[in-house]
User: Which sequence fits this backbone?
């Protein structure tokens, strides 16, 4: 049985919705799944899992500070343990999936891609194969300027992600886990 851990940071619930959809897909594929918020995952060893999924929202084209601190602390722990090696040699059977939620009221997807790339680098440096980086457009639920969900580059983003999009995420996860 494949072991999957999903670690996420969510303030308004968007990233949590995506994390739960990934959880559902992994379970449908028969995996043993652990779902944790970043603050619950400090003692997790990424190397104990076949697939590590990490999700964060994009805040001004960066991960939230507490999520960034979590990643940096884990990286420091692995570097001190000698698991960060020159050339980042691949570790057989260790994969990562990165997911990033965004609303993109200013420049759309361009606000999220730096976050996905940044998070993926933590795993690449640990020798994990980064299977994919998923960017999920979501309604902006925090307080913001009037019109943020209607007037940005992405148009009307109210109600996103839709149930159909979340089902697609579950299905895509199911396929990934089946192919591990």
Assistant:
């Amino acid at each position: 049985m494949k072991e999957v851990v999903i670690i996420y940071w969510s303030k308004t619930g968007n990233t949590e919705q995506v994390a739960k959809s990934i959880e559902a897909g992994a379970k449908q594929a028969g995996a043993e799944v652990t779902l944790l918020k970043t603050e619950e995952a400090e003692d997790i060893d990424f190397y104990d899992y076949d697939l590590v999924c990490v999700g964060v929202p994009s805040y001004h084209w960066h991960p939230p500070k507490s999520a960034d601190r979590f990643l940096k602390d884990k990286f420091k722990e692995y570097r001190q343990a000698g698991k960060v090696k020159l050339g980042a040699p691949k570790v057989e059977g260790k994969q990562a999936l990165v997911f990033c939620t965004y609303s993109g009221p200013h420049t759309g997807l361009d606000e999220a891609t730096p976050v996905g790339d940044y998070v993926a680098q933590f795993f690449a440096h640990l020798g994990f194969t980064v299977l994919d980086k998923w960017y999920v457009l979501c309604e902006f639920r925090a307080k913001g300027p009037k019109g943020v969900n209607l007037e940005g580059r992405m148009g009307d983003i109210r109600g996103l992600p839709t149930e159909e999009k979340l089902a697609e995420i579950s299905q895509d996860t199911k396929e990934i886990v089946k192919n591990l």
